[in-house]
Amino acid sequence: MSTTQEATATSLLRFATAGSVDDGKSTLVGRLLHDSKSVLADQLEAVEHASRRRGQDAPDLALLTDGLRAEREQGITIDVAYRYFATARRRFILADTPGHVQYTRNMVTGASTAELAVVLVDARNGVVEQTRRHAAVAALLRVPHVVLAVNKMDLVDYAEPVFAAIAEEFTGYAASLGVEDVVAVPISALAGDNVVEPSRHMDWYGGPTLLEHLETVPVGSDPTAEPARFPVQYVIRPQSEEFHDYRGYAGQLASGVLRVGDPVTVLPSGHTSTVAAIDALGVATELAWAPQSVTVRLADDIDISRGDLIAAGPTAVPGKDIEATVCHLSERPLHVGAKVLLKHTTRTVRALVKDISYRIDIDTLEQRSGAEGLNVNDIGHVVLRTAEPLALDPYRDNRRTGSFILIDPADGTTLTAGMAGEAFDTVSTTDASTEEDWV
């Protein structure tokens, strides 16, 4: 099947945008929405009115996305704004993430579920530190597709050599992170070149416009190719005469396909059984696939509660020692010895930060000592000891069951986003300081 055939009107692409401050990201998103006819008349009228008050002759399309008052006053994006739009070929959920370095943690939030990341670069400045940081976050979160949008080509006279040099530098850096699919598009968000309509100023460019690529890039994965993972969210026991023996486990399939008759393992206990029935919206069905929400019944009476994982196929071995790559999100530093809560799918357990092996220098990808802990926006490698065993898949194999968050037990604040395993496939491990083991 061709990529064009895959991009049907019913397909959905989740993508995130990221760029340094003043690279024109909000204008790009506004142009994408405006030129794809995804802006309501009253929204456009409000933008035109706000632009006139600022003394601007033309509508400032950046106002379509910079919804917070603080953003409009400062002229920067400081929050993750989600936008929903559709074309005749595909539906989209867009996460417009902040560009300033102090809001890198917000990009982690926006890109965590994305299948594609659009990284914006100012053609006058080329690849800068924040560009590399955005590429690293996309690689860390295993975003399968990356688009380099070289913006403001109108300010460099639409010069092909400028675009080619930036594309070569970014592609090389992305490859060093293990990113395999990078597409570079020269654009002018302000003028609309190559965003939705092809540019008449860049006839040297023979690739797709940004929207054409978004409409045709392959999305999703074959659920049958992934092992089934079903985190139990709720145990259903009606305790009524009609359903006297009913015991169902409700939740959302994180990955794979479950069929009636499939052998399954309940983790972390390791008990085995088979799928006796599957109920979807109260109706019996023979199979369910991710991300459906269903109720599963097993052939055997097993002690299962919220947080347990019903798994089919190869399973991870439950354990209490977890090695993971993390991005620290909180203003409060994370230190060795910190007591936290670890939330994995529907399970929350007590945990201890046993070691911070190293921090990753985003510019050089070097691994530096983690003895001083992790500050906000730092990316590093940690070792955690949990009070109860957990079954985490490697994040590279399963983004849903390989991820977790660390929570402050005192006030419930989210501290850190974690991904089981190493960060980047191509980064070699170097010596790092080791703290004493705890007992």
Mean pLDDT: 84
- In the predicted model, the low-confidence regions spanning at least 5 consecutive residues are 1-9, 67-78, 427-439
* Total number of beta strands: 23
Rg, nearest Å? 24 Å
Short description:
With 439 residues, the protein is of the alpha+beta class. The protein has helices at 3-6, 25-35, 41-53, 69-74, 104-111, 129-140, 160-176, 210-216; strands at 12-19, 81-86, 91-96, 116-122, 145-151, 182-186, 229-231, 234-236, 248-252, 257-259, 263-267, 271-280, 283-285, 287-289, 293-298, 309-311, 319-328, 339-344, 347-360, 367-369, 379-390, 403-407, 414-420.
Structural notes for this entry:
This protein has 439 residues and is of the alpha+beta class. Strands 7, 8, 9, 11, 12, 13, 15 and 16 form an eight-stranded antiparallel beta sheet that branches. The chain has a six-stranded mixed beta sheet with strand order 2-3-1-4-5-6, with helices on both faces. A six-stranded antiparallel barrel has the order 17-21-19-18-22-23. Strand 4, helix 6 and strand 5 form a beta-alpha-beta unit. Helix 5 runs parallel beside helix 6. The longest helix has 17 residues. The protein is globular and about 75 Å long. The N terminus and C terminus are likely disordered.
Q: Characteristics of this structure?
A:
single chain; 8-stranded antiparallel sheet; disordered C terminus; 439 residues; alpha+beta; 6-stranded mixed sheet
